[in-house]
Fold each of these.
Amino acid sequence: MSQTQQGTPMLELLKLPLSVLPALPRIVRDLPAYLNFLSGTVNGTGYDDRKYLLEKVLVLISQAEEDSTFSHILEMLFIRILYRDLPHPAIGYLGIPKGVPLPVPTEVLNNPIPYTFRAADGSNNNVHMPTLGMAGLPYVRNVTTSNTFLHHGTYPSAETVFDELLKRDGFVEHPGGLSSFFFSFANIVIHDLWNTNHSDWMKNDASSYIDLSPLYGSTEADVNSVRRHDGTGRLWEDVFADRRLLFMTPSTCALLVLFCRNHNYVATRIYTENENGTYADPATLDEEKRAVQDAELFHRARLVNSIFFAQIVLGDYVGSIIGLTRDGLSWRLDLPKSIRDLSHAWTGRGEGNVISVEFNLMYRWHPAISMEDTTWMEHFFNGLFHGKPSQELTIEDYKQAVRELTLATPRDVRERTFHHLKRGPDGRFADEDLAQLLFDATESPAAAFKARGTPEALRIIEVMGITQARKWRVCTLNEFRAYFGLRKYNDFDEWNPDPKIHTTAKRLYGHIDNLELYVGLQAEEAKPAMPGAGLCPGYTISRAILADAVALTRGDRFLTVDFTPANLTSWGYQDCQYEKDDGSMGGIIGRMLGRTLPGYYPADSAYKHFPFMVPKTMKGYMRKQPNGNVDKYSWERPKGPLHEMKKAAMSLSAVKAKASAQVKMNGNENGTSGQYGKLGL
Ligand code: HEM
Ligand SMILES: [Ca+2]
């Protein structure tokens, strides 16, 4: 290289400090404004515009030597920051932009008040890509595979894999104190996200958003089957649209019924609050106006109810998954939060989400099914499969059983029932029946995640899962780990140190690089309970699940940019907020339990505040916490409103206190708030 060629870049480099020199005194003088900008950005508090940073930078640019390196850099940074002020493209719109090819109900289009609403099939979450995450489209694949073992058809049969690596060899209690109630809730979450089409396994008939589709359904016809259409925006009493839930444990159905009640509670409150002064008694409206009012009340109530559901996911559910509830911490990761990174760019949110096949396989938490739920399932499946033993069932038997059950299920959602519960003349199930199912589920410990942990009754379901995964051509466990930046396993004993498991796996798969994803995830060594770990699944699941949790919540427009009082109404917006000091350690589900089963969940009950934790185990954890308020909670099974009334009748002051608590539980936002103040928590 010649001397001149070497000298040119050196000279260029020198130009920058030289061109900055004249501006240095000004920069030093303005330093407090720059520091304020930096600290305000890092802390997320925003910078103080009274320090006139904008003006100072403009002066700096205008006075920099024209065409100097310094002026070029300043200009570039300034324009970049201004451009990054806003996300590109914008995510939130007032209503539906014209030209978006969507099935928008005419009542919604005719409504003069713009508000945003969830489409039945989840479409339009991202208005630029309206079909993103819509029900009925193929799954996404995140990780591709270059493994050829599967290609040559040398995998062991799905049945062998189940019998040797997955079949439960004994019940082990969950190490983190999670209750069966937690998994009933999880079961609603998974039905919200997956519905693998039986005739085309590539398709997912559920939307990729937690929009409470188990309650509302995923098609316009489903949604209409649960709506009353009477001008009040309410659903029929104690119904849900997704009939697959009727195959699930009774506590799962009972919990879903409470979300139906919550919808009706919310719709009624929005109607009575009448914040825009536009609602009228439906009896006074003509048919068209009644339909418009009903649509608005329904859609707003759905928005509030599904955001409430998501707040349970972020508060109670994720709180249990990462062990915060157990450890008495009310701090939560604010996943949907609006944040800028240090380059001033917005970290994306509300941009949509599509569920992947890998996530489907990661979320099959069948090993955690409690002993009580396993017994229930064995009885249920015995009836479903006409007594045929689980070892002999085929995928065709399963599909046939689904067809039979579907035919036997009343078309009218109001006639459906579960666990032989009876509906009253008003169409509602008895509060007592629902409450007892939920109390049982809270008391019943879930099982630990482990290899050889899946109840045998689920054999054919697992065989179908393994077969689907092979048809989907998913990656191997090691490929999946590499995708997430996790160390690849070198041998089977690193994956699961239990010799019974890793020698079996080695015999079946030969090389660790051939270990298929589903089996690898399910039979991997489980994480122990420790600070930061509450769910305690296999190591890989526990890492990868967080990526999907963020994609789901942060990617959903309704949970982020459209989570506003304008859309939810001020009352609805407020109803979805946490109350950090209400005794629930950052949770919110107790509010719904209290209001939908009045009198069954006393204000101080551990069953109300921590239903995802087994009370006796939670009590033990709380005793060990330095500031544990163990005596402020009641830990025994709630006895129901009659008992509460008897207790209250014991003294006049007690009656007064109980009456105000009852008002809070039944009528207001909470059934929780304020009452904890009284208890000194
Ligand atoms: C006793 C409780 C449970 C029963 C009886 C049960 C039963 C079933 C059945 C029958 C299927 C096959 C669905 C089909 O394709 O037709 C299935 C799939 C599945 N299960 Fe479970 N399950 C239970 C609990 C859970 C729990 C607690 C979770 C996780 C939180 C879970 C996650 C899944 C997932 C992700 C699928 C795949 C769904 C799809 O691809 O559409 N299950 N389960
Ligand atoms: Ca959904």
Note: Residues 3-84 form one domain.
Amino acid sequence: MYRVLISDPLSEDGIKPLLEASDVEAVMDASLSHEELLKEISTSDALIVRSQTQVTRELIEHAPQLKVIGRAGVGVDNIDLDAATDHGVVVVNAPDGNTISTAEHTMAMLMSLARNIPQAYHQLKQNRWERKKFVGVELKNKTLGIVGFGRIGNEVAQRAKGHRMKVIAFDPFLTEEKANKAGVQHGTLEEVLQQADFLTVHTPLIEKTKHLINKETIQLMKPGARILNCARGGIVEEDALYEAIENGKIAGAALDVFEEEPAIDHPLLSLEEVIATPHLGASTVEAQENVATDVSLDVMDVLRGGAVKHPVNMPSVSSEVMEQLAPYFTLAEKLGSFLSNVTDGALEKVNVYYSGDLLDVDTTPLTRISVKGILKRYIGERVNDVNAYKTASDKGIVINEQKSTSTKGFTNLVTIEIETDQEKRTISGTLLNGLGARIVKLDEYSIDVVPEGHLIVIHHKDQPGAIGRVGSLLAEHHVNIATMQVGRTNQGGEAVMVLTVDKAVEEDCQEQLGGVADIQQVQCLTL
Ligand SMILES: NC(=O)c1ccc[n+]([C@@H]2O[C@H](COP(=O)([O-])OP(=O)(O)OC[C@H]3O[C@@H](n4cnc5c(N)ncnc54)[C@H](O)[C@@H]3O)[C@@H](O)[C@H]2O)c1
Ligand SMILES: O=C(O)[C@H](O)COP(=O)(O)O
């Protein structure tokens, strides 16, 4: 049974998939104190939040069972992604479900800002019939500058065009061609700032976008321009905006988000030119149902080991690629695990080569799984698909992935090479049609071994009697041999025996094997 803690308000209709799942216990409580949250998270397998719950490193460290954090929405700036990755916790979000609601909210803010609707409403509610004071401006023929042309930016642009606005947009991923297709003008950030009568930001809050709209960039804007932020507090520098409104450079602003939320007694709210909502962009029945459903499904997929649609802290893989790669997952992990268990020294470099059927596929997920298999020897079960790369890079281990045209006669081949400060070892494996995974090469020796169960790898001299002596000694220790493969470079030269046996080999047996004539090295492992 998976325990899923939901610590922010979520649509109950939206989380139906969770509530109806027989393997899930959903605990919903949006009023937990910090201490209560620490207690609840300690026994939870999953956590689902919106933007209120601050998912800090401390919280993640109190959650030994936690496998996934689901964000019912887009922005993940309230989640410590590094901490999640360090602890192998997958973070998923629901980026599509609230796009329309937020774009519509931006339009509502745009029109309210142009026509002073909140201010006029406020006066009228106080029984003051003011007409002269609230003369607005038309949107038609005005220029809307959009910074951040992703899902929401694009939807806002289409709606603004319906109001006969001219739209100019900047986004590092927006090309001239894409802009033409969307029917907007492509501009640099400076051009957008210089031409906008209304400027709206729709970027994530990241290092590069923090205070993107600041004292200097506001200086580039037209006098009397207006600014909207329905994305994230902090993209527009609040002090700079305050000053620009006070000195008349900026005629007004519409804000749905603030650097610190909830924003109570905020200086910007004291300005009549500023209209505001309390982070309501995604607050519609439809958006909340959408994001709750999307995140519930992804969280359950992570818990049940399925393919994830919207991972945040690991690369997303299309379902077609996933389908092609899935059969290779076990092979890649077992090859990595086998090789690291027989390699001595401090790990420095891992090279993974793919050929045959894998030549034209994005094999990054397979490399990640190989690395997980390799690191398990050192880190145990704490390493997983999410933190394998980061763990390797934190330890200074270099990972390379290459495609190779040499298939060595196999329809598909995965080769892993490990370099340590002492040696370089190589293993190759393949998926045999209908027969599953096979190790087909260990260093220079050709073998045919199923990578599972208890294995013994013996380096020896290719001499008569060596194999028999190993068999007899194992029999003395009641170790039954299931399969045995021998590979040699040349007659009488170096050779390797790989045995699969029915139980784990105990230390004294391994020691005695090491003392047998012509045996040079004995390594035992369990896959
Ligand atoms: N107010 C709300 O309730 C609400 C609701 C939903 C989303 N949001 C926020 O809206 C923002 C946009 O969401 P989205 O779904 O459109 O995201 P998105 O990922 O689809 O789009 C973001 C775009 O910003 C662009 N970008 C990144 N850095 C940039 C930079 N330096 N300059 C210009 N563009 C840059 C990206 O290339 C991307 O195209 C996010 O911050 C999200 O958290 C707010
Ligand atoms: O990033 C988002 O999805 C929005 O800011 C919505 O946040 P919320 O779920 O707290 O409304």
Note: The chain has four domains: 2-96+286-303, 99-276, 317-451, 453-527.
Amino acid sequence: MATSEETPDDARTGGLEVRDLVVRYEPARRGDDAVVAVDGVSLEVRPGEVVALLGPSGCGKSSLLRAVAGLEPVAAGDVRWAGRSIVRLPVHRRGFGLMFQDGQLFPHRDVARNVAYGLEGRMPRAERAARVTELLDVVGLHGYATRPVATLSGGEQQRVALARALAPRPALLLLDEPLSALDRGLRERLAVDLREVLATTGTTALFVTHDHDEAFTVADRVGVMGSGRLLQVGTPDDLWHHPATPEVARFLGYEAFLGGHGSTVVALAPGAFRLADLQQGAADSDDHRAAVVRGASFRKGHTEVSLEVEGVGVVTAFVPWDRVPDPGTAVRVALDPRQTAQIHGPR
Ligand SMILES: Nc1ncnc2c1ncn2[C@@H]1O[C@H](COP(=O)(O)OP(=O)(O)OP(=O)(O)O)[C@@H](O)[C@H]1O
């Protein structure tokens, strides 16, 4: 039977449910305004699902995550797990795992004893050792058990932190920018590994990041936040092809906008304009414009050219490395509709 804490709706949903959540920080000095860091957010994370919260610095991602963890009080709204409100449960009774930007490993323990931390007192020693070995395999650190953590690289330390967070089989894993302290190449590789580890272990997770590539790599669904609000939630594919507003589109990486029919706006992804005389496909388009080359930077296997397109602004075009026009060159560009998204205005 449904109680006041449980509704038939919840029983069907399971997982995490955040309802109309408000997180507010009271002012440090009298007379200052309170900061509303999370302003009425509702979000679900279904069992086994990985959801990323994506948004610029200060938009309230960490505050939301910390409220779910029980590290920040909830000013209004509700946080529910498996159909029950947990806002009054202390952190340690929620059964959630936490992982932060700096792994916060215990420097005087070796790798195995870091990973075993959450298992101590919960299972016999032999079982604990087996679980540690299993987790080190899962995160790609086979054979690292006796290494002092101080001798590990930043990426290896984050793998240990992940293994430690997963060891007690948390009901929900909360990750706050776990890869942000690492350099870009390593971050990209670890994001792929993280996705695989979460999938293999069937872990339900909420993952905070300001990096859209990382969110798209790791998560089944992504929630885009801005100024304390949840602006849009969807699969990476859905968000990219159907951003709800120019604000969301810009945050996902769209660079410029064109007026469309009526209240429709056309968002332009990097590569939306092709240099007409250089690239195949450009000739098919009937939308040609004048542009001036502003600069170029070499990337893996191609060159990104910065173009100032008449009536549009500065955008990025991709050209083969041996066909890069000099800065100042006047060129014609053609629009590739596949690299655009339509945003429908308010009806
Ligand atoms: N303990 C606090 N006291 C007062 N204000 C806070 C506190 N923590 C966060 N804030 C404010 O709340 C807002 C949201 O911060 P939060 O850390 O949740 O954002 P974020 O999106 O995670 O940002 P970042 O990516 O920079 O960590 C910001 O304006 C921040 O200054």
Note: The domain at 257-343 is CATH 2.40.50.140 (OB fold (Dihydrolipoamide Acetyltransferase, E2P)).
